[in-house]
Design goal:
5-stranded parallel sheet; 2 domains; Rossmann fold; 8-stranded mixed sheet; 38% helix; single chain; alpha/beta
């Protein structure tokens, strides 16, 4: 049967269903549409379903010209898992958050598998793109195969292919970024390779499904550790009266053995603060605590509080107490509208709690909820700037008029190094 699946992929007769149409699922869906693959979509967010049926994208990096497909074929997008019956290949792109105690929260995936049980049949392919700990993909299959009718490699095929999305990066493309694929059997791997070769220039096949799962955790643990190092170097440099941005600029000239990472107010999003903790949890199960990863995670998660305390210290020196504060950028990273685990929201919470009047400007985020109170993004106009005493840059979006901010002569706290290359630096600008 697997040869029939391979032929369908080759001849573009394959039916692909994507469950979870967020920052991973929707761009993936778009890539298959570009290749004229027959695509189905499932998501429990009715607003997303409605938007797609109206031919409108809710993510800036996914174009309306492709999602108009669902305006033409509204029966191919739904919140109902029964669509699965029509699919040859099912790809799961759902979030895998952490519990309060920093352990994996797999409930969303478990709920998905429970729904799939009713509709999954033999001779289908299941692919997981959600980040999980090693061994989790096959554990999920056991939950799916509770009646033992499915046999991997014979009448069912199981694959893990970690997502490598980089929201906000206009240069990101699977034309340059390889896709990693791991399968439970050689037939699974062959199917995975054939499918992803349609949308990626290069596909890397791992020796096992667990290697693919672990590779994703390594990628984001690498970032966690190196961002932690950059933040620690920043704190050390400050105590030595050395500008960390000058240090990084000098180190970047080395063309071997060094990759530059920038310090900031903390990490955010749905990868760096979470994925390394999946690895820590899985490793502790094997009686080993990854000290370096654990320490880096703790350091990075402490940065919003560290930055707030430094700002308060400077405000006291400047005799600025209980003033109006404007935050520039509340997304967790530049050029996206994602506020999940954003250090900016933690900082805003701290200032509101201390009685300050806080407002924000973010071209990608229209509103945020802090302290059960909604704040709305304000236009970056002279009137809105002038009513504030202090400006804090927490996200360095490219499409913000930093010259206007600098010209305001307000006290500016730059947590992202936006003004690091300015030769004529406003004396009211402080790198924090």
């Amino acid at each position: 049967m697997y040869k029939e699946i391979l032929n369908k992929i080759k001849n573009n007769k394959i039916k692909v269903g994507i469950i979870g149409l967020g920052y991973v699922g929707l761009p993936l869906l778009e890539r298959f549409l570009k290749k004229k693959v027959n695509v189905f979509g499932i998501d429990n967010d009715l607003k997303k379903i409605s938007s797609l049926k109206n031919g409108k994208s809710y993510l800036p990096n996914v174009k309306n010209k492709y999602v108009k497909y669902f305006k033409k074929y509204p029966d191919k997008i739904s919140s109902n898992y029964s669509l699965v019956k029509n699919m040859d290949i099912i790809i799961i792109c759902l979030p895998t958050p952490l519990k309060i105690n920093k352990t994996p929260d797999m409930e969303i995936l478990y709920g998905c598998i429970k729904n799939l049980r009713k509709f999954v049949t033999m001779n289908q392919v299941l692919i997981l793109e959600s980040t999980v700990y090693p061994g989790a993909t096959e554990e999920l299959f056991k939950r799916l195969n509770y009646k033992s009718k499915l046999n991997i490699g014979r009448n069912f095929y199981l694959i893990f292919s970690p997502e490598r999305e980089n929201p906000g990066d206009k240069k990101f493309s699977y034309k340059t970024t390889p896709k990693v694929v791991g399968g439970s059997t050689s037939k699974c791997m062959e199917i995975g390779y054939s499918l992803y070769k349609k949308i990626a220039k290069k596909v890397h096949i791992t020796k096992s499904i667990q290697v693919a799962e672990m590779s994703k955790l390594l990628e984001n643990s690498y970032r966690e550790v190196n961002i932690g190092l950059a933040n620690e170097m920043k704190l050390i440099s400050e105590r030595m009266n050395i500008n960390i941005w000058d240090v990084i600029q000098a180190a970047k000239t080395k063309n071997f053995g060094f990759s530059a990472f920038n310090p900031g107010p903390g990490t955010g999003g749905h990868c760096i603060p979470i994925d390394p903790m999946y690895l820590v949890w899985a490793s502790k199960k094997k009686n080993f605590l990854p000290k370096l990863i654990w320490a880096s995670s703790r350091l990075n998660s402490s940065m919003p509080k560290v930055i707030v305390n430094k700002i308060y210290k400077k405000m006291n020196l400047l005799k600025k107490r209980k003033k109006n504060i404007l935050f520039i950028g509340v997304a967790y990273k530049k050029n996206v509208g994602d506020v999940r685990h954003s250090p900016a929201t933690d900082m805003i919470h701290s200032f509101i709690k201390k009685g300050h009047n806080v407002s924000f400007h973010d071209p990608y985020v229209s509103e945020i909820k802090i302290y059960k109170k909604k704040l709305y993004s304000e236009d970056l106009i002279k009137k809105n700037i002038n009513k504030n005493d202090i400006i804090i840059i927490t996200t360095d979006h490219d499409n913000i008029n930093y010259k206007k901010i600098s010209a305001s002569k307000k006290i500016i706290f730059d947590t992202r190094g936006v003004f690091k290359n300015n030769k004529k630096l406003n004396k009211n600008i402080f790198f924090i």
